[in-house]
Amino acid sequence: MILYKSYFQINLLVGFCFLGLILNSTFGTYSILIFLISGFLLLISNAEASFSSLKKNYFLFFIPLLGILSTIWSDTPFSTLRSSIQLLLATSYAILIADRFEFKKILNAIVVCFIIAMSMSLFSDNYALNGLTGEYSLIGIFASKNYLSINTAIAIFIAFSSFAYNRKNIPAIILLIISVMVLLKAKSLGSIFFVFFTLLSFFLVYKCRKLAFLKYKINVFFIFFTFFLFTFVFFSNIYKGTFDELFYMLDKDPSLTGRTYIWDQGIKIFQDNWFLGHGFRSIFHIGNSVAEDIWEYVKVESGAGFNFHNMFIEILVDFGVCGLLYFLILILMFFKQVFSIDEHSESTMFASLLFMYMLFQSFIEVSWFRQFSITHFMICMSWVYLSKPNKFFNKAVV
């Protein structure tokens, strides 16, 4: 049964879905309730098409289902189960929106949502104290400086992708300007670098993939990124003194604001259950010795939301080698999808940019597989867009 026959109704529900996730840090439970209701209404608007979409993209359900299974060995089974179900719902809603509704026709709703969020952050005086550095950082309407940076980057990629194919798209231009202003106001050198490096990498891949030798399946981007990563690791370890001096010259902490210590703790606890991990979101709870030690080290109150600030270590701790293997396969499949596109559209350009950005961020942040987060929601949508870049969308919902 098809309940909604106009894209005005669809855009309204999609907009509420996005606002519910984006404003989660500000409005909490009420915001998530709006997201859940809107997503459910979209799901039942054409239940047959929705379940068909979910079935086609089954690969994305591995982590949510493994999370539910991990309640068996988790030290906090109820928390793990709740987080896993939340991740499952967010994954499902993202898939059905991306698969059923054409990106162009819901783009304005998405742009408006981010304009609201970026405007609120731009005019916000909400700053947070970094316990290690003593610096105050702009967080806007988000829970932390990192979440502000990631959401701003997503907004820039959406606006850029839309503007690239429609130079008269006024909302996209407004979003791009506001997002860049937020990024500059945040004064985050790392965020500016990652956004710039992502855009540069995208254009490099787009141009280089058309060269003749790429027909022999030589992944230029993968080589480029591997070389960059190897160089970074080499110089940071072999020439650690020079590396530290460089960071001090930039007025930055060479420990990446305490991340190296947090990573060490993650590696140690991973070894206790190396194959299946400790369970989804089971570590950072009051009473856990590792969590309490990290909270004390970074000078935040016990029980504060936290993670290991490295996606690979986070996966190892939560799901062990089993989860890491899946994550690496997922990344390789994303690479394959990016390189299979002959001509980009707004959706595939955005999806490619987001994937590259999230991959780069994976070494210092945890953005994948975060329940009720816009980052996980958008990476799931990106998977669908890259999987079927030339798909004719289901017209039954219109």
Structure description:
β1 and β2 (136-138) form a beta hairpin. This protein starts with 6 loop residues before the first helix and ends in an 11-residue tail after the last helix. α3 packs across α6 (77-100), α8 (145-165) runs antiparallel to α9 and α15 (311-339) runs antiparallel to α16 (346-361). It has a two-stranded antiparallel ribbon. It has one domain (7-397). Mean pLDDT is 80; it is low at 233-244 and 390-398. 67% of the residues lie in helices and 2% in strands. With 398 residues, the protein is mainly alpha-helical. It contains 17 helices and two strands. It is a multi-pass membrane protein. The chain crosses the membrane at residues 12-45, 57-74, 106-124, 136-158, 170-186, 220-239, 315-335, 347-364.
What is this entry, summarized?
The protein is mostly helical and 398 residues long.
Fraction in beta strands: under 5%
Strand and helix order? HHHHHHHEEHHHHHHHHHH
Helix content class: 55-70%
Secondary-structure content class: mainly alpha
General form: globular
Order of strands, widest sheet:
1-2
For the secondary structure, the number of strands is 2
Residue windows where pLDDT falls under 50 for at least 5 positions: 233-244, 390-398
Mean pLDDT: 80
Euclidean distance between termini CA atoms: 13 Å
Largest sheet: 2 strands, antiparallel
Estimated radius of gyration: 21 Å
* Total tally of structural domains: 1
- Tally the helices: 17
SSE layout:
Layout: H1 7-22, H2 24-27, H3 29-45, H4 47-56, H5 62-69, H6 77-100, H7 103-122, E1 127-129, E2 136-138, H8 145-165, H9 170-186, H10 189-208, H11 220-238, H12 240-249, H13 259-270, H14 289-298, H15 311-339, H16 346-361, H17 374-387
Antiparallel strand pairs: 1-2
Helix pairs in contact: 1-3, 1-7, 3-4, 3-6, 4-6, 5-6, 5-15, 6-17, 7-8, 7-9, 8-9, 8-16, 10-16, 11-12, 13-15, 15-16, 16-17
Protein name: O-antigen ligase family protein
Organism: Shewanella livingstonensis
GO molecular function: ligase activity
